[in-house]
Specification:
The chain is of the alpha/beta class. The chain has six helices and five strands; from the N terminus they run E-H-E-E-H-H-E-H-E-H-H. It has helices at about 15-20, 60-70, 70-75, 95-105, 115-135, 135-140, and strands at about 5-10, 25-30, 45-50, 75-85, 105-110. The protein has a five-stranded parallel sheet with strand order 2-1-3-4-5, sandwiched between helices. Strand 4, helix 4 (about 95-105) and strand 5 form a beta-alpha-beta unit. The structure holds flavin mononucleotide. The site of flavin mononucleotide (FMN) has 21 residues, from helix 1 and strand 4. Flavin mononucleotide binds near residues 13 and 113.
Length: about 140
């Protein structure tokens, strides 16, 4: 089975552009609360930009939280890649760190904005390596099984 990316991207589309260049299968978490969550029923890596308030709170976009509130999704996440902007200093890509901790999965990588060609190559290789290392039982894992 080929790797699957699940990602959120706001109207500024940085993460969307990054994911488009990865050339991997990908599902986008909708921006609108009114739109239905897409069904994700197989293992995936989440790519999550950071949107913190001035006090550092609310770093994980609400729609990402909503997606991860589904226990089926939490059972399938294999790792998280955080994105952000280094201008935010210590808060750089903290959304990814928070998701990794909450879901007890590795923070695989962090990148800025829509990433560099090097970021793209690193993530392509890293995700493929992770998929190769998944046990057959994880690869076959589907929602509800
Ligand atoms: C209101 C706001 C808050 C942000 N907060 C952070 C932050 O705390 N840390 C960080 O690394 N990036 C932060 N960013 C930068 C975004 O994470 C970055 O621009 C990202 O690439 C956006 O991805 P998207 O265009 O796919 O939504 C913030 C951006 C905005 C507009």
């Amino acid at each position: 089975m080929e790797p699957l990316i699940v990602y959120y991207s706001s109207p500024s589309l940085n993460t969307h552009r990054f994911v488009g260049r990865l050339g991997l299968r990908a599902v986008r978490i909708p921006i609108s609360f009114k739109e239905a969550m897409p069904p994700v029923e197989e293992p995936f890596v989440l790519i999550c930009p950071t949107y913190a308030d001035d006090d550092g709170s609310k770093a994980v976009p609400k729609q990402v939280i909503r997606f991860l509130n589904n226990p089926d999704h939490r059972a399938l996440i294999q790792g998280v890649i955080g994105s952000g902007n280094r201008n935010f200093g210590e808060m750089f890509a903290v959304g990814g760190k928070i998701v990794a901790k909450k879901c007890n999965v590795p923070l695989l990588y962090r990148f800025e904005l829509s990433g560099t060609p090097e970021d793209i190559m690193t993530v392509q290789r890293g995700v493929q390596k992770l998929w190769n290392s998944l046990t057959p039982s994880v690869k076959m894992r589907k929602t509800g099984s």
